[in-house]
Amino acid sequence: MFRFMAILMALSFASVAHAAETDAPVTAAEWASYKGKFLDPTGRIVDNGNGGISHSEGQGYGLLLAYLANSPSDFEQIWSFTRTELLLRNDGLAVWKWDPSAKPHVKDINNATDGDLLIAYALALGGAQWRRMDYVEAAARIARAVLSETVISTGGRTVLLPGVAGFRAGDREDGPVVNPSYWLFEAMPVMKLLAPSDQWDKLRDDGVAILRSLDIGPAKLPPEWASLRQKPKASAGFEPQFSYNAIRVPLYLVRGDIRDKDLLRRIKNGMVDRNGIVSIIDLPTGKPVEQLPDRGYQIVHDLVECVLDGKPLPETVKQFQPEFYYPATLQLLSLAYARENRPSCI
To answer: Is 90 helix (H, G, I), strand (E, B) or coil?
Structure first.
C-alpha cells in the first residue's frame, strides 16, 4: 500500500496528471469524434482498418487517449473490456487479439508487448490522475509481467521481445527478432516506478542504440521487424519495409524525450517520398511502395520537423476528422504532445 501511494505521489509531482478538463491535451471535441468512431459500447476499441477486430494495442491507446482527454468514465469502460476480455493469460499479460466474428473471440493467446506497455502506462497515469489505487495495482502487475516475461538480454543488449512466444533465438533461425516500434520510451520511467529495476533504463538506452544501428538501405530507415542474431538487420521472415508499425517510431522518440537529432532527422527524411508524403518504403531500394497521405501519418513527420527545425504544423494536419483507427490515434498523440510540450508547433 505504501509503495503504491509513493508511486501516485511520484507520478503527480512529475506533472503527468492534468488538473482540469479544460487543460486536457486531447480536446473534448476530438475525443467525442474518436470514441464515436472507434469505441464500441462494450468498451472495446474497434480497428476498422483491420476487419473490425480489437487488440491489446488498441485498448492501450484507448486508455491513454481517454486519460489525455480527462474522461474517467470512458477510461473505466475501456478498462472493463480489457480486464475481462483480454487479461486471460496466467502470466498477467493480455492476449493480443479479440475477433468479434470468431467463436471463441480469442483463438491466439500470445501477447503483444507494445499493448501490454500501453495498458500499464495508461493505468498508472489514470490511477495518479483520479486517485484510483486499483488502476495502479493493475499497472504494476502488468509491468512486472512485461519485465519477467518479455525483457531479455542478448548480445550485450537489453531488448524487448514482441511477444512471449515466437521471437526468441530458439523460436526462429534469425531470432531473437524485435519490432523497434514496440519501444514505448515515454513509459519506461513509469514502468520503473511500478516494477523497480535498472533493466528499464537499459531497455530504453539499448532501444535507442538498436535504432541507431538500423539504418538500412538508401533511405537509412529501421524495418518493421529486425533480427538481432548478429548485427541488427531486417528479419528474413517479414517484408523488408518501413511501414505502418515503424511510422510511430519517431513519434515515440519525440514523446519519450529522446533528443537524438541525427536519428530523428534520418528517419524524418527517409519516411517520405519526393513529394513529402509519408510512404511505405522498400528498404533494399529506398523507393516508396505506397503513399500514406492520411493526416495521422503525415503529422508524425511534421511534428518531428517542428521539434528539429521549429516549423509549425500545417493547418491540414491539425484538423481532426478520423477515418481509420490507427492514423487517428497517431494524430491525437501527436497533437497532445505538441500542446503539452511544443505549443509553438501549434
So the answer is: coil
- Please provide the DSSP assignment of 241-305 as one string: EE-TTTTHHHHHHHHTT---HHHHHHHHHHTB-TTS-BEEEETTTTEEEEE---HHHHHHHHHHH
User: What are the tens digits of pLDDT across the range 284-332?
Assistant: 999 999 999 999 999 999 999 999 999 999 999 999 999 999 999 999 9
Q: Which helix (H) or strand (E) holds 32?
A: helix 28-38
Q: How far apart are CA 53 and CA 101, in angstroms?
A: 8
* Residues forming the active site: 57, 114
Q: How do 151-154 and 54-55 pair as beta strands?
A: unpaired
pLDDT at residue number 19: 44
Per-residue pLDDT at 15: 42
Does 22 reside within a domain? yes
Q: Is the peptide bond before 104 cis (omega within 30 degrees of 0)?
A: yes
Residue 333, in any domain of the structure: no
In a domain, 84, yes or no: yes
Residue stretches of the chain with pLDDT short of 50: 15-17, 19-21
Q: How many independent structural domains does the chain possess?
A: 1
pTM listed for this prediction: 0.96
C-alpha cell at 317: 494536419
